[in-house]
Amino acid sequence: MSASTPPLSGPPKAQAKALNCPKCGAAIVLRSFGQAETVVCASCHCILDAKDPNLAILQQFEIKTSDVRPLIPLGTRGKLRGTDYEVIGFQRRSTQVDGITYCWHEYVLFNPYKGIRYLSEYNGHWNDISICKMLPMSEGTSANYLGEIYKHFQTCDASTDFVLGEFPWQVRVGEKAAVTDYVHPPRVLSSEKLDKEVTWSIGEYMYGREIWEAFKLHGAPPEAMGVYENQPSPVTTNLAGMWVAFAAFAVLLLALIAGFDMRAKKEPVFWQTYRYSRADSKAEASFVTDVFELTGRTSTVQVKTYAPVSNHWIYLNYALINQDTGQAWDFGREVSYFYGYDSDGSWTEGKQNDEVVIPSVPPGHYYLRIEPEADPSLPVIPYTVDVTHDVPVFGIYGIAFLALLAPVLIISFRAHTFERSRWSESDHPPMQLSSSSGEDE
Q1: Which of 161, 166, 386, 403 has the fewest beta carbons closer than 10 A?
Q2: Of 70, 56, 97, nearest to 162 (Cα)?
Q3: How far apart, in Å, are the Cα atoms of 133 and each of 183, 189, 199, 409?
Q4: Model pLDDT, residue 432
Q5: Are 403 and 380 contained in the same domain?
Q6: Are residues 253 and 308 both part of a single domain?
């Protein structure tokens, strides 16, 4: 380490060991103080035996693309989870699924007291990874680690395509390992089998901005694309608890509805059938009904209208008038019913009855003023007017129910959509995906 490089936390540490590549003579710096098994020459890309004093050449590989470069340069230091680490190694790995190659990057981090840990990055998604301290128990499509159940996500063969820096194992380009991932967002449990050796690791999802802040990197992190296997859902609400709360409120609303329905008198106060005739209407456009009485408290009044119209309409201008005070409530109602046939088959529109509720009508003596109008082609039509006092109105409760249901449905839909996107990339995609894709073809 140079004098200008800030030291890691803790007491003074030994200087990094400087050597030279036996093939090209380029300087090789070992930063991991003897923990490295292999080191890669950045100049000629020879993989060297870090345990050999002469740095014996183990493998040399060719770079097939110039685009392979670490987002976090080797030698970069930062504080991750409260501990200072230095980036000492980098590798690109890949796998093929259905003829498509998927690549991701892995970084080796080192602290002289905490040892080795890793970072992985795929399409802007990051994971902080460490070796498991205990052996997980796996059975079927699940695994148990420290009492937490992880679901099997995918199994694939991972190939090492490019390496740079130091590694605490005998790394080789072209080496393939069987990797199995189990997820319990935001964590991922992975087993990696190489030959007969199996290594288990535990990773926790991190956002790119957290990595950039930890290592004081310039610019902005690459934007995360898609949904990653252990990416935490943006819907952090307890969905089960939310549905339980909604059910409790729904039961309360039903109890209120039942209570108000039982309390309402639903008292019939007026009923009469009239006959509309175009000849009679020319003489008198409007008329008034007999007086009826509303007793008790201020409450609702329901006015129902029925007319046996068929491909016709009738319109009634109503006014509910308090005989004692002259206060009036004006409203108009239409009764219409049409039917027919077209290229799509039979159709109907409207209905032969109508009802309206007038709120907060005080007790007193009332009558209706009625002014009917009808379809010009309809010379005579009977119609019935039915008035009921103190009827329950449930519309406000329906609005309250929808107001409670809407956010629950929206949040549940977002959570379902997110999980569907996650598992569509796994070995266990939702069945609906395959069926819907088959229907689209």
Answers
A1: 403
A2: 70
A3: 18, 12, 11, 41
A4: 46
A5: no
A6: no
Is 99 part of any domain? yes
User: Quick one: how far is CA 260 from the chain centroid?
Assistant: 38
- Residue 93, token pair as written in the block: 């790995």
Same domain, 171 and 185: yes
Give the burial string for 105-141 (b: 16+ CB within 10 Å, else e): bbbbbbbbeeebbbbbbbeebbbbbbeeeeebebeee
Q: What's the order of all strands across the beta sheet hosting 267-277?
A: 267-277, 380-389, 299-306, 353-361
Token reading at 210: 């957290």
- pTM (2 decimals)? 0.69
Average pLDDT of the residues in 60-82: 86
Residue 80 C-alpha from the chain's centroid: 29
Cα 209 from Cα 20, distance rounded (Å):
36
The region, left, alpha or beta by phi > 0 then psi within -120 to 50, assigned to residue 353 is beta
- Does residue 184 sit in the same domain as residue 37? yes
Give the contacts of 223 (CB within 8 A, at least 6 positions apart).
Answer: 124, 208
pLDDT number for residue 65: 58
Tokens representing 163 are 């390496």
The whole domain housing 413 covers 239-260+396-440
Length of the chain: 441
- Take residue 262 and report the two structure tokens written for it: 């039982």
Q: How far apart are CA 284 and CA 19, in angstroms?
A: 115
Neighbouring-strand partners of residue 277? 380
State whether 95 and 78 are in the same domain. Answer: yes
Q: Do residues 38 and 2 touch, judged by C-beta distance below 8 A?
A: no
- At position 398, the amino acid (one-letter code) is G
**Among candidate residues 186, 196, 65, 198, the one with its CA nearest the CA of residue 126:** 186
pLDDT-based confidence at residue 222 (cuts at 50, 70, 90): very high
